[in-house]
Fold this protein.
Amino acid sequence: MKPAYIDTSFILSILLETENSSLAEQVLEAQHSPRLVISGIAFNETVYVATYEYYKQRGIAKGKYSLRKIIVRQGYPREVIDALNSFLKDLEVEIIGDYFNYNEYLQILNDFKLLPNDAQIALTCRHYGINTILTFDEDFKRVPWLKTVP
């Protein structure tokens, strides 16, 4: 059985309390794919957003532009890194390499009107033959080779 790609929005709904948290947990419990994968681009996004939310909830980050200075001073929160590591380990999520081909990337970017990171994820999924993505990002519904879950 082919793996399912796990997107940033889905992971954040597990790690942080969001409107989609309970649905994300239900999806994980019902997931039929024996293998979950993530690539570097989604991993990077997850670290960034989770770090921002951590510092924002504590009143330290006032905006995303202040995050760089906060990271220089305080680093990445141990709680964020530990939670992400635990999540990946508990679900045995495999980290795969991002695939990049300039012409294919531009085609996907333009054809499906995706943000740059989403185009990279769609391209990576196509390259590896992944046809299922666990995500709350509606934009992936425009990608014909990806089935979005939920």
Observations:
- The chain is about 55% helix and 10% strand.
- Residues 15 and 60 are 20 Å apart (CA to CA).
- The chain has a mean pLDDT of 95.
